[in-house]
């Protein structure tokens, strides 16, 4: 994983959503009441797995620093959305299922206790593990006390020329009320005394986010790369900011606010205008967490708690520096030996020309048969991006239809759609402007597309459009042919380099007809009731999966081949979990490969003895969703955009496509075989909800890294016989 300011916060947490509490289960009394793990604690357990990567001395050092930054970013979003949503629901009296029969306030207390534990562990991982290793590697994060006189003189010049003009100290007194503290901003709380009156006053300085979080120190001839935290530099120049005053004390603090967006959709209201108004309100959400340095005095803390309306439970006392998201900046260092080895994605074999030096023709390649691509092991640029660019330039292409959930700031995908529209093609873009934390970005893209002549729609009222779909309509002789792409990940060239995803290209008429009907439903007023190779939410996806789960249970009872294998980012939906429990009771072997939240309890006698759960984290973000069923000997598998969460199954438009090529089904089986193998490094979920990392044998030898193994296997892949 790598940091990029233009990459959305979905980088790890995949769009945390607080609105995921309405139970989908139908309890007939045959299953135990305590059969679900708590989803919030399960999410914190996921972030603990991220932290364990930062603590692992076998990983490249700058990647460990990056995982510390990812942990911090994840936890921020967790508080901004999930904790904020819980508090909002409790305050407004909305029911909050806890899965474990406890009161909502007890759930918040458990979350707070675990979050305090993890934040302390996170701070210690930097201070005691990663920072000393960085020092040994010649990368020093200094404090002011580490600097000599020559350093301080040079820093004084940097401060006066590059930092002082940007700072804005704000006094608090009868003429200056306590200032608004923006969410996630780093601040200095300063107490100063007037030398003549002796009056002590409080001031706040916001550490500018427009400046580097860690300021690089001038070269001192030592050959070391040296930094100082920006707030440390500022705090040691307070006399310049408060001339004539006596600076008594200063401390760092940081506030997290409720930044969940609630949009009351009304068919009579312009959705973009409603969303823009809500985005303005987001900035002023109530505080839900206060992080302070562990040396803050009681007087300053009492002032902050009183003015911010924070409870004692919401105060997190930590060693400096706060906000370790700043460690993302270390990824810019040119120290390849301290990073994962570079990997150059290869072009999918089935998309390469058959003749040397021939020009790629993706339409011809797809016409020969379905093509399954696996990113980032196989190139997004020479598959999805090239597909759209070829479609935009091809005079025989009449129309392009595409969904856009998240894309990058300089997206060649959007540029291809614009070029297609400008060349006279019919182009439809369904832009989901409610994609969390990408709302403003998507609004801007939507307006740019509209100006270029693209037909832009925003989906269905009350639903987010999360499916990943492209359809190209091409004139070939006397017939129109549909070329389709259905993926598990966003059409984002930047995240495609760090997100593991699958995508299917097909010229199958059945898929073409399915997508035509689905796009008509999304852009018009159609109510589609029948799809052939697709499972579509919200009406059919849960039902379709439950039907297949129940069928596997019956196959097991009948002595036929039965097996269920699921790969998802989150497993929360009660109806799906209950279906899996019943299948397990029937004897179906069930493999679940999950990245984040998992509310299912594996290995419970009489309930889930045949269920095993694995989690794989590493250099790439495991993001694909796969649903595989033995089918009594007729293997079926689907890929798509949906996780097993209420939001995906009830409040989003999602699509899974069935894989039909035997080679693709074998590939899916091989992927699961390896991921669930005891020879592969992974976390294993226990019945009580704890995750055990197993990355070495009993003899201390390293287990197989799944992502490295897949990378090697794909790099050696030969052209499929068709």
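^ structure tokens above, recovered residues below v
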């Amino acid at each position: 994983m790598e940091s990029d300011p233009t990459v959305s916060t979905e980088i790890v947490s995949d769009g945390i959503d607080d609105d995921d509490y309405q139970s989908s289960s139908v309890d007939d009394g045959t299953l135990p009441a305590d059969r679900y793990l708590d989803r919030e604690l399960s999410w914190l357990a996921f972030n603990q797995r991220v932290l364990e990567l930062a603590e692992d001395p076998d990983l490249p050092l700058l990647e460990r620093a990056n995982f510390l930054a990812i942990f911090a970013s994840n936890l921020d979003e967790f508080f901004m959305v999930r904790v904020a949503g819980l508090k909002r629901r409790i305050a407004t009296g909305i029911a909050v299922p806890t899965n474990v029969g406890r009161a909502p306030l007890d759930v918040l207390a458990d979350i707070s206790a675990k979050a305090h534990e993890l934040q302390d562990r996170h701070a210690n991982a930097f201070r005691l593990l990663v920072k000393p290793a960085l020092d040994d590697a010649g990368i020093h994060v200094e404090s002011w006390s580490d600097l000599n006189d020559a350093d301080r003189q040079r820093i004084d010049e940097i401060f006066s020329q590059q930092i002082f003009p940007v700072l804005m100290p704000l006094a608090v007194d009868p003429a200056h009320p306590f200032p608004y503290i923006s969410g996630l901003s780093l601040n200095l709380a300063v107490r100063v005394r007037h030398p003549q009156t002796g009056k002590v006053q409080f001031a706040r300085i916001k550490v500018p986010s427009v400046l580097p979080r860690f300021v690089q120190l001038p070269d001192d001839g030592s050959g070391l790369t040296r930094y100082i935290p920006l707030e440390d530099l500022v705090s040691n120049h307070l006399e310049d900011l408060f001339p004539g005053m006596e600076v008594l004390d200063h401390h760092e603090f940081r506030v997290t606010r409720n930044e969940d967006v609630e949009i009351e959709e009304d068919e009579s209201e312009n959705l973009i205008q409603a969303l823009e108004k809500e985005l303005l309100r987001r900035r002023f959400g109530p505080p839900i967490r206060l992080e302070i340095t562990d040396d803050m005095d009681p007087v300053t803390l009492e002032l902050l708690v009183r003015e911010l309306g924070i409870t004692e439970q919401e105060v997190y006392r930590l060693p400096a520096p706060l906000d370790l998201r700043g460690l993302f900046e270390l990824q810019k260092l040119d120290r390849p030996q301290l990073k994962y080895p570079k990997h150059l994605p290869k072009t999918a074999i089935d998309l390469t020309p058959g003749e040397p030096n021939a020009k790629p023709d993706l339409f011809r390649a797809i016409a020969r048969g379905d093509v399954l691509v696996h990113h980032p092991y196989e190139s997004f640029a020479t598959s999805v991006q090239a597909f759209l660019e070829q479609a935009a330039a091809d005079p025989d292409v009449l129309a392009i239809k595409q969904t856009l959930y998240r894309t990058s700031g300089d997206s060649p995908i959007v540029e291809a759609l614009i070029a297609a529209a400008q060349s006279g093609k019919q182009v439809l873009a369904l832009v989901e402007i409610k994609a969390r934390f990408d709302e403003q970005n998507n609004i801007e893209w939507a307006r740019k597309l509209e100006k270029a002549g693209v037909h832009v729609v925003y989906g269905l009222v009350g639903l987010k459009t999360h499916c990943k779909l492209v359809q190209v309509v091409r004139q070939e002789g006397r017939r129109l042919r549909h070329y389709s792409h259905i993926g598990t990940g966003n059409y984002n060239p930047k995240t495609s380099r760090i997100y593991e995803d699958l995508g299917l290209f097909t010229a199958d008429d059945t898929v073409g007809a399915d997508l035509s009907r689905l796009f008509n439903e999304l852009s018009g007023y159609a109510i589609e009731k029948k799809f052939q190779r697709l499972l579509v939410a919200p009406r059919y996806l849960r039902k379709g999966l439950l039907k297949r789960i129940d069928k596997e249970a019956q196959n097991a009872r009948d002595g036929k081949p039965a097996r269920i294998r699921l790969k998802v980012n989150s497993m929360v939906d009660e109806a799906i979990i209950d279906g899996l429990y019943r299948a397990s009771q029937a004897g179906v072997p069930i493999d679940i490969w999950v990245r984040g939240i998992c509310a299912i309890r594996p290995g419970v006698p009489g309930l889930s003895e045949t269920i095993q759960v694995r989690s794989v984290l590493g250099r790439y973000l495991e993001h694909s969703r796969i649903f595989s069923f033995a089918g009594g000997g007729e293997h079926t598998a689907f890929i798509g955009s949906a996780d097993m969460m209420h939001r995906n199954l009830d409040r989003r438009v999602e699509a899974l496509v069935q894989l039909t090529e035997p080679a693709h089904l074998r590939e899916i089986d091989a992927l699961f075989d390896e991921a669930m193998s005891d020879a592969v490094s992974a976390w294993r979920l226990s019945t009580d909800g704890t995750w055990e990392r197993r990355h070495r044998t009993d003899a201390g030898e390293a287990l197989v890294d799944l992502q490295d193994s897949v990378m090697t296997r794909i790099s050696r892949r030969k052209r499929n016989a068709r």
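The longest strand covers residues 246-257.
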